[in-house]
Amino acid sequence: MSHPAAPFITPLPWQPPAAFFPLCRTTEHSVFLDSGGPATQDRHRWSLLCPRPVAHLTLPLAEIHQFPQTLRQFLTTHAPATPLEPMDDALPFLGGVIGMLSYEAGMRYAGLTSRHQTECPALTALACRDFFLFDRRAQKLWWVSAEGLPPPAMPTPTHKPALTPHLTPHATQNASHWQEAVQTMRRYIAAGDIFQANLTMRWHADRPAGLDLPLLYEQLRTQCPAPFGAWFHTPDFTLLSASVERFIALDAEGMIETRPIKGTCPISPDPQQNDAFKEALRHDEKERAENLMITDLMRHDIGQVCQLGSVTVPQLFAVEAFAHVHHLVSSVQGRLRPGLDAADLLAATIPPGSVTGAPKYRAMEIIDEVETSARGAYCGTLFRLGWDGTLDSAVIIRSISVTAKTLAIGAGGGITYPSHPEREYEEMCLKAAPLLKVLRHYGS
């Protein structure tokens, strides 16, 4: 069979991304990078759906030190022989690798071994050569194919099954145990071990026979629209994400951006009350200190691979609204040093600083001591690495991780010395509540 000499980018009549998601029901591997929320913002603008990746890579935890070179080789092996031709429309992704690095992968790469066991893969990645690309702002749609293959036919609508199994998530710690862990972290801070650490916990549910994962994801994306929503599906592991946090982005000119999130308050339907919440968050000394420390940590992390003097902080303590809460968000930028690439950038920064602490290495040691279960995919990163060397990635928060036996969600927050255990517990539960609602009302 002969193929065209050059890859193809084919405009198609506009359809919303959700219309194509049923294509993911019938394949063993699939990816849907699903930007939700207002498409007017760049972080909410683009979506991508690859119903049939051409290859699957997994790397066990014991070999994670090899991940940069393994990832480069996987990217090169499946890159098209001919670069895709430029278009009038500036498209953010023309093919490459979409993958997940777990939290424990980041720990091991930094030289630490977790005391907790997990079924989650350390690195799993899919090569995406043929996919739909959606510009939600302009309502434009393209089929991108490295081989010039035709797009699959529009899927037929699916119906919700008549019977769906019940999901019952159970917390790994009760309130008093979790609040005692806050006090333990405060004692470490008082002793000078760390300035801050991110304390989290998990809820687990048994995976029942007959679980309809696509239906569960449809309910998650409807109830928790997010700029870094994602469906990442393999036979052994599936990630359903409603993440609100960018981790690291790298453009074709070598510019890096990371957007750490620290600081949370509720959203109120009352505009006056909502403004009061935002103003209180903007001036909360504890939340600002927490955000500043993580911003400084990320300056250090990307500084390891940036040109000298190029790292800046163009945004500090901005209050941004998401589906269920407001957050304090900062931005750190820099320029990648010549001779380095996106794999080097990931290696220098995993696991994300906003879900570890400062100093990062010691914070990870303490986190592993006081937490009672593995984080797995939660607090890892989902990344998109293009043939052209560009990178975008999200911190895996607000997510449901699914293995052969269990479903898991996580939530947490940054602990500093002024942290009040009861207040931290309430904030953590506020973050978990939308995901718990999705699980408990699955199928209804």
TrEMBL record:
InterPro entries: ADC_synthase, Anth_synth_I-like, Anth_synth_I_N, Chorismate_C. This is Anthranilate synthase component I family protein. Residues 176-431 form the Chorismate-utilising enzyme C-terminal domain. Pfam families: Anth_synt_I_N, Chorismate_bind. It comes from Bombella pollinis. Residues 17-142 form the Anthranilate synthase component I N-terminal domain. PANTHER family: AMINOBENZOATE/ANTHRANILATE SYNTHASE, ANTHRANILATE SYNTHASE COMPONENT 1.
